[in-house]
Predict the 3D structure of the following.
Amino acid sequence: MYERYRVKPEQEIDLNEWDPADAGAFEGDKKAGKEATKKLNKRLEALQELLYAEGKHKVLIVLQAMDSGGKDGTIRHVFDGVNPQGVKVASFKRPTPEELAHDYLWRVHKVTPGSGEIVIFNRSHYEDVLVVRVHNLVPEKVWSRRYEQINAFEKQLAEEGTTILKFYLHIDKDEQKERLQARLDEPDKNWKFAKGDLAERALWPEYQNAYEAVLSRTSTDHAPWYIIPANRKWYRNLVISQILVETLEGLKMEYPQAEEGLEGIVID
Ligand code: AMP
Ligand code: MG
């Protein structure tokens, strides 16, 4: 299911051809969509418990989006109810001086998942070919090499046992207008608004180009990108939950063998 949102390796992506308001088979039926998501969340909870208990696989989820694209909301809704012991979120902000003194993957590699863990990247190493490219924070000669470096890095993680899923939350500029305005209008949301967001919004076409390059050049069999229609939050949550559940089910996990001789033990 939802294979159609997966970017094939080397597929040329024009984001104008991808509908951010798509609701697939659930068009006009938000209620059914939300119910389906609820069921998927229950399955996800059980699968995460199993992943943690088995302690074998590592799972990395990368979330990227324009400002207000829904990264925080996705984390809140999709992982609602999972055991916080086995799930971590790593958020990537503007690099600190120490981080800048190292190569751009240094801060990333050290927070990748260990065995039995799910780690969600809220932004990621892709910022190093997105914001960095759009603002010329390093010369083109430097950022243009990074697509191949990122592919090699992710290949290495995958070969060492990490399952990688990458989600680009696709909204359009009108949707962003509404969401940013809501951050200004609702006092409880003011903290999410930075004046700098306006300057980034003005660079919308440059960012879309940078995203198209990312999606076209770094979707691989071992670390695929999915372009998630994200104007409608409930559909976004549904699609991501479904992809996660199917991926975890594909790992064929099992609870560890119990110790021998447990039968008949009674605790007094
Ligand atoms: P937020 O996600 O709203 O907390 O914002 C985090 C900010 O950090 C965004 O404006 C990102 O573009 C910025 N950021 C993240 N990674 C990098 C990076 N490698 N270089 C420069 N800016 C970055
Ligand atoms: Mg922000």
